[in-house]
Amino acid sequence: MLPRALLLGVALASTACPTDKPVLPSPPAATHSTPDPTSGSTGTSSGSSSGTLDGSTSSATDPTSTTDEPGSSSGEPPPACTLPEDRCAAPTTAWWDEKWSYRRRVTLESPLATALTDAVVPVRLGADFEFACAQDGGDDLRFVDDDDAVLPHELDQWQPGEGAVAWVRVSTLPAMDQEPQALWLYYGNPRAPMPAGEVWPSSLGLQAVLHLGGDLEDARGVHPGRPAVDGAIPQFVSDGVMGDAVHYENILVNARAELEGSSFIDDALEASDALTMTAWVRSTPAVASSTENRTVIGRGELGWGMLVRDVGGTDFLPPAYAAFFSHCGDAVCSGLFPNDNHLFTGSVPIIDAPVIPTWHHVGMVYESIDGVDYAKRIYVDGVLDEEYIGPLPLPTPTDALPITIGAGAGPAGASMTMFHGEIDEVHLASEAWGPDRIAAEHAFAADPRRVTVASAECQ
Known about the structure:
mainly beta; Jelly Rolls; eight-stranded antiparallel sheet; seven-stranded antiparallel sheet
């Protein structure tokens, strides 16, 4: 099990703001919404984003613009900055914008042999980050490269005194044998607005990005999840890979989630003839189920999905494996698979302990090779597990059932394939991601040491 310390990230060298700087005025009222307290969320999950990169389709506010009047969403002034002057270094290079009082150097250590374009990387801030020096909701955070370009970011979690997570989009993640990617994190501007920008690139075909950090929202704001049954409140646990994670039990059939606008995702998948699903999965061992399959992500009763499969029974004692399900009713598949269902199973266990479950990153990719043969690939913890190539086109669902998380769709399917355990960071795309992108997604979430955040510099 990944420890709670993952959320807290890399330990930072300082704990508050230096005394030689004036105390910041009260920050402006937060413009982002507060999560529904019934959702199980703790702290603030703002979903704010900033900056632009070339090719962005989203408009963005000027990241250096300020409002005329500072204010406070709570009506109370922020805590004073109390760190001694010798704990905040003088600038080592030119300052990006004098409206921001503080900055920290952020370095990204790539796990890849080749460079990767349009990467989105999580940056964790520890409990000892100077939250008092930033706005109440972190709206003044800016990630800036060495060319003074403001990078888009999404502030996924902001929990003063505990930690924070920001997802930062970089145009290029260098290879491991190149100079590491380095950025500046600026903060300490009480008048900076919450900016906007395309963090999750449309070039990757992303259809839904669910952090599952206390709610079912889509970070792209397009296809959020919702309870399959009105009034069924999802359960969340605090020890996910990136903060909270959604919890499922195989007796809680109504707790499964459905993605809104599933038919539009179907249209995108049909147009591209490609699919990528990734998720962090912690499947509970030794809990009997009705069948040998647990659904992580599913599309209808005769569509496709990501499963955890017990190949030896239904008690889910180790080992159990990731499995890529798809239905093939086309004539080309006739007689090839039982009931025209192809259940392609991996060989690396994702239930690998008899008592204590462990987190594993699972990726599944489908793409057309030549219009006749198709590839299905299963990745576990960033590494290719198994690959199938053969006559298996991606099915076009004919039912009105939605894409689901945590169980199959429909009353019967849901009760038979309910997931038991926790799911975190569900990403769904209408493009076939390469192995480097899946490896990077796994590596940066699994190992906080790949992102280092240096001590503060003061203007």
